[in-house]
Design goal:
The protein is mostly beta strands. It has a single domain, classed as Neuraminidase, CATH 2.120.10.30. Helices cover about 0% and strands about 55% of the residues. A four-stranded antiparallel β-sheet has the order 1-2-3-4, with no helix packed on it. It has a four-stranded antiparallel β-sheet with strand order 5-6-7-8, with no helix packed on it. Strands 9-10-11 form a three-stranded antiparallel β-sheet, with no helix packed on it. A hairpin with a 6-residue loop joins strand 7 (about 65-70) and strand 8.
Amino acid sequence: MAVSSDGSFIVYSAIPENPGLQARPQIYLRRLSQMDAAPIAGTEGGISPFLSPDGRSVGCWTGGKVVKTSVEGGVPTTLCDASLLFGASWGLTAASYIRLRRPAVCIVFRLTAANRRL
C-alpha cells in the first residue's frame, strides 16, 4: 500500500471480490473522499505499489517487470526487468530507487526520470 503525498488517496494491491480460479492481483486506487476503490487499468497482476512524489503515477511489479502508469490508468511503461521486487520508491528529483531480490543478493539501483539506470 502507498499513500499519496497530499494524503488524498491510497493505492494498494488486491484480488477482486469473488475471484475465479484465474484471478490475479491488481492495483486499486481509493480516494479518501469516496467509499469505493477502483482498479487502475494497466496494473493487472501488479503488487508492491509505489507512488510518484506528485501522485500522478503509480509503479508496481508485474510479470517479471517493474512498471509505471498514470493513477488514472493507461498503458504501462517498463522501468526495468525484475525477477522479484523487494521494494521501490520515487525520489524527490523524480528518480526511482529500485531494490531487487535475487538469490542471496539484494540489488539497489537508481533510475532517472527518463528511466535510465544510474
